[in-house]
């Protein structure tokens, strides 16, 4: 079944995380993604983290459904190949430092002149404008300057990071969202292509809720609160007697009353002072202590059974082993089996979101470097002799 983006061609000029993840999401839903890699080593992600026979397992996930073409962007003939691909592309996704593509002769002015309907997604640390535009920016810096690190971790410890590259991922999601909005405008005949300018810092900042108005109006500087969600009570992580933890979200008014009744504190359930969130938040520490005393007398499983029976949102903190074994993940096809080179089978994450009529699909795992060079160049009209000449010139590999 063709995906909803079938017929859309995406040219990926990115490396590592942000731009490639955005292109991967589009590839999963049917877009033809042509990934341009430098000859030799290719995208550095091929060698990051845990490996299988010399190639990163992350690579196989990050680049699934993509075509790899090895092009030397320092060669005039290689640059001409990219220009020819851009002519027939709907979207270009890149994460060079601002000005990087311009130095190569592949800037927006050049590519949009070749293809006025082209949409260019540009992901960078600080955006294409502003006083910081020329600074190098990685996801970690975006997380720091976007505000999320200041609010993450224990108040007694230095600011912590989330255990994944959340800044890059958020930028990728904003990039896809912007690309689809810009594409819709083109496909509906409402206008030509445009630049989608995505900043790592701003992508993180965009999910920081009411941080700014709370500071501006009330002087509130939100900081680290451990497992609690500040100003939303009770919502925290509570210990159990078997050394585990349960996350309990009892912060809506009726759920709070059910929670208090279930743990034997009907007095708190009926107390007018705790009827709404603002009253509960004024005594968050006391309520957390009450709930923590209850959970500490039970195992994780005992606590979750009681909370589920009372219809209170709660859950254990999952490791990857818990995720892979969980029947709900399996029922939702969120754990897929994939074949690696050599026939080795491995579990991979499934596809999000779930579309009822045109679902996403995994057609192949991350390709070998330059695996599709000949077929892509053939689509441009080059015959075997022409491709061989480009190889002789060092334009492609």
Can you put this structure into words, describing what you see?
The protein is an alpha/beta fold and 397 residues long. The protein contains 18 helices and 13 strands. α1 links the parallel β1 and β2. α1 crosses α7 and α6 packs across α7. The longest helix has 22 residues. The two termini are 33 Å apart.
Search tags:
six-stranded parallel β-sheet; CoA-Trfase_III_dom_1_sf; CoA-Trfase_III_dom3_sf; transferase; three-stranded antiparallel β-sheet; 39% helix; 397 residues; alpha/beta; CoA-Trfase_fam_III; 15% strand; Succinyl-CoA--L-malate CoA-transferase beta subunit; 18 helices
A few lines on this structure:
Helix content is 39%, strand content 15%. The chain is of the alpha/beta class and 397 residues long.
Content of β-strand: 5-15%
Molecular shape: elongated
Strands, total number: 13
Structural class per helix/strand content? alpha/beta
Radius of gyration: 25 Å
- Strand order, main sheet: write it out: 5-2-1-6-7-8
Q: What's the helix count?
A: 18
Give the termini separation: 33 Å
Mean pLDDT reading? 96
Q: Helical percent range?
A: 25-40%
Q: Any low-confidence stretches, pLDDT <50, length ≥5?
A: none
- Biggest beta-sheet profile: 6 strands, parallel
């Amino acid at each position: 079944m063709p995906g909803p983006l079938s017929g859309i061609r995406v040219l990926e000029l990115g490396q590592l995380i942000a731009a490639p993840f955005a292109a991967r999401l589009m590839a999963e839903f049917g877009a033809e993604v042509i990934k341009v890699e430098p000859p030799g080593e290719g995208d550095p992600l091929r060698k990051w983290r845990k490996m299988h026979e010399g190639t990163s397992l992350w690579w196989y996930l990050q680049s699934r459904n993509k075509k790899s073409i090895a092009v030397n962007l320092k060669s005039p003939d290689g640059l001409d190949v990219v220009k020819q691909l851009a002519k027939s592309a709907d979207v270009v996704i890149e994460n060079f430092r601002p000005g990087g593509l311009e130095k190569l002769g592949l800037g927006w002015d050049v590519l949009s002149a070749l293809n006025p309907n082209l949409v260019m997604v540009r992901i960078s640390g600080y955006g294409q404008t502003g006083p910081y535009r020329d600074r190098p920016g990685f996801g970690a810096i975006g997380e720091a300057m976007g505000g999320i690190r200041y609010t993450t971790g224990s108040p007694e410890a230095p600011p912590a990071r989330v255990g994944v590259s959340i800044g890059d991922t958020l930028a990728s999601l904003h990039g896809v969202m912007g690309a689809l909005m810009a594409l819709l405008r083109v496909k509906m005949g409402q206008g030509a292509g445009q630049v989608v300018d995505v900043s790592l810092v701003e992508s993180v900042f965009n999910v920081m809720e009411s941080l700014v108005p709370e500071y501006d109006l009330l002087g509130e500087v939100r900081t680290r609160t451990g497992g609690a969600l500040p100003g939303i009570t009770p919502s925290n992580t509570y210990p159990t007697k078997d050394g585990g933890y349960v996350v309990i979200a009892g912060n809506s008014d009726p759920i709070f009353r059910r929670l208090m009744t279930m743990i034997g504190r009907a007095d708190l359930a009926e107390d007018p002072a705790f009827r709404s969130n603002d009253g509960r938040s004024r005594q968050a520490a006391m309520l957390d202590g009450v709930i923590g005393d209850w959970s500490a007398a039970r195992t994780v499983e005992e606590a979750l059974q009681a909370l589920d029976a009372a219809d209170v949102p709660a859950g254990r903190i999952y490791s990857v082993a818990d995720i892979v074994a969980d029947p709900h993940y399996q029922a939702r096809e969120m754990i897929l089996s994939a074949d690696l080179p050599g026939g080795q089978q491995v579990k991979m994450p499934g596809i999000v979101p779930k579309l009822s009529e045109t679902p996403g699909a995994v057609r192949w795992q991350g390709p070998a470097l330059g695996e599709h060079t000949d077929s892509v160049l053939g689509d441009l009209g080059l015959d075997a002799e022409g491709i061989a000449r480009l190889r002789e010139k060092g334009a492609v590999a």
